[in-house]
């Protein structure tokens, strides 16, 4: 019995190491938007982002329903399933922001592309949009990003900003860095607020 327990423990540790190693490899090979760190305190950062280009769709429904519904058309665009031209590399994170009664779900385009360099979407569902340089506040957290966890982290970020007399310049943005199969403890999620134009 003791030998079985030892082997089971060793197998678990091996699987954990493989999962963690795979996660680190994938995250190390997926482009993320660059930024300049302005201030950091614990899990909260103030960052200056350069101009970005995003592919965006709008979806209604709950937060979770909208991000799941938005992923398919955006993946279809970057993988050239319905349009002419080359495939575009996947980046992280996938983001979403409340846009009136709907949600804007976005893929950030790789930094090598300018707006005019990108292939046109096949239809009107996916929109290419430039985003200006922006100073943003972000809080980073792990776990499965359900509504309860997101609300708790958003409240922490709002408290951080209020304590410094800083006002969000718009609604929160939710950022998800991992695929659905990544274990919760390895996931990276963020809540972000725009503060002011960068620079």
Summarize the structure.
The protein is of the alpha+beta class. The protein has helices at residues 2-28, 63-78, 147-163; strands at residues 36-41, 44-49, 52-59, 94-99, 102-108, 127-131, 134-141, 173-176, 189-196.
Number of helices: 3
> What's the Cα radius of gyration?
19 Å
- The helical percent reads 25-40%
- What is the overall shape? globular
Based on the coordinates given, report the CATH architecture of one domain: Alpha-Beta Barrel
CATH class wording of one domain: Alpha Beta
Oligomer: single chain
Calculate the mean pLDDT score and round it. 90
Please report the distance between the alpha carbons of the first and last residues. 64 Å
Can you give keywords for this protein?
199 residues; Multidrug-efflux Transporter 1 Regulator Bmrr, Chain A; 3 helices; 9 strands
How would you sum up this structure, described in words?
- With 199 residues, this protein is α+β, with helices and mostly antiparallel strands.
- It has a domain at 52-131: Regulatory factor, effector binding domain (Multidrug-efflux Transporter 1 Regulator Bmrr, Chain A, Alpha-Beta Barrel), CATH 3.20.80.
- 30% of the residues lie in helices and 29% in strands.
- It has helices at 2-28, 63-78, 147-163, and strands at 36-41, 44-49, 52-59, 94-99, 102-108, 127-131, 134-141, 173-176, 189-196.
- A nine-stranded antiparallel sheet has the order 1-2-7-9-8-4-5-3-6, with helices on one face.
- A hairpin with a 2-residue loop joins strand 1 and strand 2 (44-49).
